[in-house]
Amino acid sequence: MSIISLININYTYPLEEKQTIHSLSLDLEKGCVYGLTGANESGKTTICNIIRGFIPELYKGELTGEVMIKGKNINDYNIGDLATIIGYSFQNPFTQLSGVKDTVYEEIAYGMENIGVPRSKMIQKVDEIVKMFQLEDLIDKNPFELSGGQKQRVAIASVVALDPEIIILDEPTSQLDPKSTEDIFEIIQLLKKQGKTILLVEHKVDLLAAYCDEILLISRGELVMQGPVKEILSNPKVVEYGGQLPQVALYFIKKAKANGSSVSQVPLTVQEVYDHLNKDGEV
Ligand SMILES: Nc1ncnc2c1ncn2[C@@H]1O[C@H](COP(=O)(O)OP(=O)(O)OP(=O)(O)O)[C@@H](O)[C@H]1O
């Protein structure tokens, strides 16, 4: 049984004539990291909102098709239960912060407070999360006085603190510098090891290539490609659909085309190039 299934989803925002999501079906398996990518405005955030139930709960509009979470129709969950199963970190961390807590420490504890986690367990979890996200120097600061990147880290940390089985991260690194971006991807790796299912909206395909199991490519509200990272991110069709390929893959695809050879085995990451050269004794 897939942990998330969308079955023939069509969706139109309120007062819009044009449909945003068209005949979309997908299955996501427990414990995998999925990279949801595609051009701007192709519908990625909308899909996340459908999976989390914010559409049609908050956004209304016309939604048809079925959303199944852990084999059960999303309409059969109560809102509280769904919130503990699916954690959602928004594209804009400002939206995510509660606005009612004065320190980063309290902000991270806030979600647990709301669901009645015992105090001793809560303190233990906040300490663990602070360490995981390297927030030690920020715990006494007001969340709204942080930089954009710091807010983003705190927002994601608050989601992870609730220990949801499914974690949706909508462009989690959009405001982060390269070092903090790598750190977030390392945390994603760790969460995968803990058995979490992660849906990651991200434009940085080089990082998706290194950390995801599968890629879902969206174009104009349709799922146009889905498959293992190796298969999708070495396929030049991705670019035709408005997506991007890793820089390394682009270089090797160009080289393969010039030599008239197959593009199916191109490396996607610098590490793969290194491993390949190492095997041949060239480094
Ligand atoms: N609340 C809304 N009401 C009406 N239309 C909306 C609303 N939110 C998004 N849209 C439209 O739906 C389409 C898909 O938007 P969405 O934000 O899902 O795309 P995206 O792929 O996440 O974009 P980006 O990469 O730029 O964040 C866009 O045309 C957008 O203008």
Automatic annotation (TrEMBL):
<dbReference type="InterPro" id="IPR027417">
    <property type="entry name" value="P-loop_NTPase"/>
</dbReference>
<dbReference type="Pfam" id="PF00005">
    <property type="entry name" value="ABC_tran"/>
</dbReference>
<dbReference type="InterPro" id="IPR050095">
    <property type="entry name" value="ECF_ABC_transporter_ATP-bd"/>
</dbReference>
<dbReference type="InterPro" id="IPR003439">
    <property type="entry name" value="ABC_transporter-like_ATP-bd"/>
</dbReference>
<comment type="similarity">
    <text>Belongs to the ABC transporter superfamily.</text>
</comment>
<dbReference type="InterPro" id="IPR015856">
    <property type="entry name" value="ABC_transpr_CbiO/EcfA_su"/>
</dbReference>
<feature type="domain" description="ABC transporter">
    <location>
        <begin position="4"/>
        <end position="245"/>
    </location>
</feature>
<dbReference type="InterPro" id="IPR003593">
    <property type="entry name" value="AAA+_ATPase"/>
</dbReference>
<keyword id="KW-1278">Translocase</keyword>
<keyword id="KW-0067">ATP-binding</keyword>
<keyword id="KW-0813">Transport</keyword>
<keyword id="KW-1003">Cell membrane</keyword>
<protein>
    <submittedName>
        <fullName>ABC transporter ATP-binding protein</fullName>
    </submittedName>
</protein>
<keyword id="KW-0472">Membrane</keyword>
<keyword id="KW-0547">Nucleotide-binding</keyword>
<dbReference type="GO" id="GO:0005524">
    <property type="term" value="F:ATP binding"/>
</dbReference>
<dbReference type="InterPro" id="IPR017871">
    <property type="entry name" value="ABC_transporter-like_CS"/>
</dbReference>
